[in-house]
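pasting for the record
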Amino acid sequence: MIGRTLKLIVVALGIASSLPATPALPLQDGEKLTYRVSWAIVPGAGEIKISARQDAANDRLVVTTNTATRGLAKMLLPFQAEASSVFDLKTGRMISLLEKNVTKGRRSEHTVTFDFDSRIATYAPVGSTEKPRDLPIPPGDPTDLMMGLLQTRTWDLTPGQKRDVLVLFDDDFYELTIHMARYEDVVTPVGKFRTVVLEPRMDKTPPKGMFRRGSSVRIWIAQDSHRLPVKFEVEFKIGTGSATLEAYEAPSSAKAAVGTATSRARDGQNPRS
């Protein structure tokens, strides 16, 4: 159950993918986020780490997500997963995805490549006799499960507003509607935040997966300059899994700006000039 919780929390992270005309990138070069995962009464069940690096030579941004159980949860159910999402810096679209995981010693790996001209995604298992499959892409610009949530940082919804989104979970596309439920204050290890609470629902298609089983998802997005997803939660009939931001590292551009301002101040110059 703990491993399934981690997987569904990753679903929650990706479940709020946006559909602007030119999709915003989920992270910037050098940006890093770390989440502490809890399930029911187990406070340190797992950890999720997300980082981004820019491949300027190829106009790409590579975002890597690592998920793993920790402590007692690792003893009960060893689980590790890694996803590499590649974005085109010019269009903001995700063009390829590699996902792999190890659960109780069993390995699983696959790649997905997106052809937006033909509106076909090619799903290819790795290390398997299973042949690649073509997946028709519904309207919109899909992302993987993790990157979708981070793209909501560009949203500006008010209570009662909603937005349709598209995410890919393994080999299945989910067409969702994200509702802005309310404002709420949230305290995390990195500080206190005023947030908006987003709730994804399957309004336009028959519920499937976790939604058909009665699970609900909530996501908290900070209303500050970074607009970080500071908390997310998946509620099951037998308990609740949650992830809380415990560490954040700003993008390289922000670090460079701070360094330049510090240097100017040291030299007696106005850092804002």
